[in-house]
Write a structure and sequence with these properties.
The chain has 264 residues and is mostly helical. The protein is built from 15 helices and no strands. The chain has a domain at 182-264: Serine Threonine Protein Phosphatase 5, Tetratricopeptide repeat. The protein has helices at residues 2-6, 17-24, 42-59, 63-76, 81-94, 97-110, 115-127, 131-142, 150-163, 167-180, 185-197, 201-212, 219-232, 235-248, 253-260. Helix 8 runs antiparallel to helix 9 and helix 9 (150-163) runs antiparallel to helix 10.
């Protein structure tokens, strides 16, 4: 989860291509800490500035410096919740689970309505296999009508539902994403996959058609498209997918599977 957190999306759900870039935006990641404002005290302003600096270093993978800045922020104002949320992300990145959880909880203690902190803590719990707890956090994030990016929490809830093999819940959450963002490529891909696995190949093809209009092809999308076309008996479409896969991604595992005839 290290890179996913740093880029603020997830989750290493796919290898490379637009999938990786997209998930980095959707993983368990916070919104940017609030900018200092005139209504804030001097201590809050200092805490906000150092939290912004910490977030910047974190995004570049400079975790040690990020920790320094964020600790300075909490020293300037021990009640500044966004600093603890960022500390949770940094410690999560470093594999310091105890410290990560402690800081996420502190952020939420200080600001129980912080949807980004709920989303981040939920993603942490999901990645640690605590799926039921994670879903509670995503739903808590979504209770806030002012949450600017509910699609992130819905998507993460869908991903984590799949960890417990709750396909119905996952489909529900991914469809919630599409209700907000009809062209969301991550949700379209996930629903295409789920449709394919359920044997609903027409639906899988429809999702892939929508996906092709909003995102560049990747080995994963081409491979799913190829197999879907194969199931539907669309030979020309299957051949087109196969040609693009071989030409654009010759070293991918999907191309190797194609050349070996391993379609499932």
């Amino acid at each position: 989860m290290a890179e996913q957190s740093r880029r603020r999306m997830r989750g290493g759900l796919w290898r490379g291509g637009w999938f990786l870039a997209a998930v980095l935006l959707l993983g368990g990641c916070a919104g940017q800490p609030a900018q200092p404002g005139p209504e804030q005290t001097e201590a809050q302003n200092r805490a906000s500035i150092h939290t912004q600096l910490g977030a910047g270093y974190y995004s570049r993978g400079q975790q040690a410096v990020a920790l320094q800045e964020l600790n300075t922020a909490t020293q300037a104002d021990p009640g500044y919740a966004p600093a603890y949320d960022m500390l949770g992300l940094v410690y999560m990145d470093l594999g310091e689970d105890g410290l990560a959880e402690r800081n996420f909880k502190q952020a939420l203690k200080l600001n129980p309505n912080d949807s980004d902190a709920h989303n981040n803590y939920g993603w942490f719990l999901c990645q640690r296999g605590r799926v039921d707890e994670s879903l509670k956090e995503f739903l808590a994030a979504l209770k806030n009508p002012l949450y600017a990016t509910p699609g992130k929490a819905y998507f993460n809830a869908g991903v984590c539902s799949l960890k417990k093999n709750d396909v119905a819940a996952a489909e529900h959450f991914f469809n919630k994403v599409l209700a907000i963002q009809p062209q969301n490529p991550q949700a379209l891909y996930q629903l295409a996959q789920l449709s394919y696995k359920a044997g609903n190949f027409s639906a899988a093809g429809a999702y892939l058609t929508r996906l092709s209009k909003v995102a560049q092809a990747s080995p994963e999308t081409l491979w799913l498209g190829l197999r879907t076309a194969r199931k539907l008996g669309h030979q020309d479409e299957e051949a087109s997918y196969a040609s693009q896969l071989r030409n654009d991604f010759p070293d991918s595992p999907e191309t190797r599977a194609l050349l070996n005839g391993h379609y499932e």
